[in-house]
Design a protein that fits this description.
The protein is α/β, with parallel strands linked by helices and 459 residues long. It folds into three domains: 88 residues, Winged helix-like DNA-binding domain superfamily/Winged helix DNA-binding domain (Arc Repressor Mutant, subunit A, Orthogonal Bundle); 105 residues, Aspartate Aminotransferase, domain 1 (Alpha-Beta Complex), CATH 3.90.1150.10; 239 residues, Type I PLP-dependent aspartate aminotransferase-like (Major domain) (Aspartate Aminotransferase, domain 2). Helices cover 43% and strands 12% of the residues. It is built from 15 helices and 16 strands. The strands form five sheets. The chain has a seven-stranded mixed sheet with strand order 4-12-11-10-9-5-6, with helices on both faces. The protein has a three-stranded antiparallel sheet with strand order 13-16-15, with helices on one face. Helix 6 crosses helix 12, helix 7 crosses helix 8 and helix 9 packs parallel to helix 10. The longest helix is centred in the C-terminal third of the chain and has 24 residues. GO terms for molecular function: 2-aminoadipate transaminase activity; DNA binding; DNA-binding transcription factor activity; pyridoxal phosphate binding. This is 2-aminoadipate transaminase. Its EC number is 2.6.1.39.
Length: 459
C-alpha cells in the first residue's frame, strides 16, 4: 500500500511548479502549472491531488494561496471536488451539438444585405459626424431632437406625418411598458389583456404589485363586449394589446375590431397600450389603434424585433402633453436614457435609409422562412406568411411541456403555451420562432425533426 502511495506521490510531484517572484501571483502560477500538467498528460483525469495543507507545506506557501489556486483551477474546469474523498483532476468536458434555438423572437439575418458592412458604415458615420465626448456622457431623457426626428420618420409608415415632439425614445419596449405601468396605474390596480400574450407584461405588472386580468378573445383578438364589461367591472388602469402578428398566436386584429376597441377605451376613459413590434414586418397590416383614438392610445414600436436586438431602442408615441410628462418622470426613475452610441446608430440608420434596406432584407428572409415552415409542417402550420413566429397547435397526444422536453432531447428549443398563459393548461400549442437560427439550412433540419416528433405519439 505504501509502495503504491509513493509511486502516486512521485507522479503528482512532477507537475509541482517552481514558484518565482517575477511570474505574477503565486496562486495563478500554481493554477497555470495544473493546467499545463493536464494538457501534457502529466496529470490524468481521476488523479487525486494532495490535500491543500500538504501542498502548502511542500511549496512553502500559506494555505490561502493553495485554496485560491484550487478555486481558480475549478473555474477553469480542471478540478472537481468529491467531498471528504478530496480533490481530483476533472474529466474533459464533452462539447455536444449546440441547441437549435426556436424559442426566441429575433429578426433573421437579412436577405441580400451585408449586415457587417452596414454596421461598420453606420458606426463610421456616427464617429465622423458626432462629438465623441457627447457619445459618452449623459443625454436628456426621451431622446435628443435628432433621435425624436428619427422616431417620427420610423413611425411615418403607420401614421403619416408625426410631430417629433410627441415621440419619446426609450431603451427598449420592455422599459416603455414598465414606465407606462408606473405612470398610469397604482399598486393593486387592474391591467386588462388577452388570455395568451407577452410574458413581459405579466412580469412587470407582478413586480409593481399590479394584477393582469384576462379578457376573452376570438379568432380576431379581444372581444369588444367582453372588454366593455371588464372595464365597467374592474375600472382598470390600462388595457394592453399587441394587435399585429400577436405574440404568440400570430393573429392580426382586423381594422373593424381595432376601431371598436378604441371606441370602448374612449367611452370608459382607459388608456390602451398598443405594443406593436411587428407592424412593419406584416403584409398590409390595418392601421394602428392609435389612429382611431389618438389621445387614448399610447403606441410603442421597437427596433429590436424589426432590425436587431442590439439596438435597444423603442419609439413611444404619446400625443397628450400631460401623459408624456408623467411617462418621462416614470421612465427616469429606472432608465435615464438610451445608450447614446446606440441611439446615434439607430438615428443614423433611419435617416440615411440603411434601416429601410435592413428592414426589407429581414422581411424577405422572414417570408422565405415562413414558406419553408408551411411546406414542412403542412396542415399544422398556423402562420400568416410574415412576422417572426408560428403558433403551432399540437395533436391531442402531445402536451406543450412534454413536446418541449422531447424537442430539447433532440437539440431543439421551443416555447410551450404555458409561458404565455400562466396557470392555464387548456392551450395545447407551442410557439416556434423562425428568426433566431442564422442558417436557413439548420432551421430546415430543425423543422423537419419537429415534424417527425409531431407525427407520432410520445414513447
Amino acid at each position: 500500500m505504501s509502495h503504491v502511495k509513493t509511486i502516486q506521490e512521485q507522479h503528482l510531484a512532477a507537475w509541482l511548479p517552481r514558484l518565482a517572484g517575477s511570474r505574477g501571483p503565486r496562486f495563478l502560477q500554481i493554477a497555470d502549472a495544473l493546467q499545463a500538467a493536464v494538457a501534457d498528460g502529466a496529470l490524468a483525469p481521476g488523479d487525486r491531488l494532495p490535500p491543500q495543507r500538504q501542498l502548502a507545506a511542500q511549496l512553502g506557501v500559506d494555505l490561502t494561496t493553495i485554496t485560491r489556486a484550487y478555486d481558480e483551477a475549478r473555474r477553469r474546469q480542471l478540478l472537481e471536488g468529491r467531498g471528504a474523498r478530496g480533490t481530483y483532476v476533472a474529466a474533459p468536458k464533452v462539447h455536444l451539438t449546440s441547441i437549435l434555438d426556436l424559442s426566441m423572437n429575433t429578426p433573421p439575418p437579412p436577405d441580400g444585405v451585408d449586415f457587417d458592412d452596414l454596421l461598420r458604415q453606420g458606426l463610421s458615420q456616427v464617429l465622423l459626424r458626432s462629438d465623441n465626448e457627447l457619445l459618452m456622457t449623459y443625454h436628456p431623457g426621451g431622446g435628443s431632437d435628432s433621435d425624436r426626428q428619427a422616431g417620427a420618420t420610423w413611425l411615418a409608415p403607420m401614421f403619416g406625418q408625426v410631430d417629433a415632439r410627441q415621440v419619446v425614445v426609450c431603451p427598449g419596449a420592455q422599459a416603455a411598458i414598465a414606465a407606462l405601468i408606473l405612470a398610469f396605474t397604482a399598486p393593486g390596480d387592474i391591467i386588462l389583456a388577452e388570455p395568451i400574450g407577452y410574458p413581459g407584461l405579466r412580469d412587470a405588472a407582478a413586480q409593481f404589485g399590479r394584477h393582469v386580468v384576462a379578457v376573452a378573445t376570438d379568432q380576431h383578438g379581444m372581444l369588444p363586449e367582453q372588454l366593455e364589461q371588464a372595464c365597467r367591472q374592474y375600472r382598470p388602469g390600462l388595457i394592453y394589446l399587441n394587435p399585429t402578428l400577436q405574440n404568440p398566436t400570430a393573429i392580426t386584429m382586423p381594422a373593424r375590431r381595432r376601431k371598436e376597441l378604441a371606441a370602448i377605451a374612449q367611452r370608459c376613459q382607459v388608456i390602451i397600450v398598443e405594443d406593436d413590434p411587428y407592424w412593419l414586418l406584416a403584409e398590409a397590416p390595418p392601421p394602428p389603434l392609435a389612429t382611431f383614438a389618438p389621445q387614448q392610445v399610447v403606441y410603442i414600436s421597437t427596433l429590436s424585433k424589426c432590425l436587431t436586438p442590439g439596438l435597444r431602442a423603442a419609439f413611444v408615441l404619446l400625443r397628450d402633453v400631460q401623459q408624456r410628462e408623467r411617462f418621462l418622470v416614470a421612465l427616469r426613475s429606472f432608465a435615464l436614457m438610451v445608450a447614446p452610441l446606440t441611439a446615434a446608430l439607430a438615428t443614423q440608420w433611419i435617416l440615411d435609409g440603411s434601416a429601410g434596406r435592413l428592414l426589407d432584407g429581414i422581411r424577405t428572409e422572414a417570408r422565405l422562412r415562413h414558406r419553408m415552415a408551411r411546406d414542412i409542417l403542412a396542415g399544422r402550420y398556423s402562420g400568416l406568411g410574415d412576422g417572426l413566429h408560428v403558433w403551432l397547435a399540437l395533436p391531442a397526444y402531445w402536451t406543450p411541456a412534454r413536446l418541449a422536453q422531447a424537442a430539447g432531447s433532440v437539440g431543439i428549443a421551443v416555447t410551450p403555451a404555458q409561458a404565455f398563459a400562466k396557470g392555464s393548461t387548456a392551450v395545447n400549442a407551442i410557439r416556434i420562432s423562425l428568426g433566431s437560427t442564422r442558417d436557413r439550412g439548420h432551421l430546415q433540419a430543425g423543422l423537419q425533426r419537429l415534424s417527425q416528433l409531431l407525427a407520432q405519439p410520445p414513447e
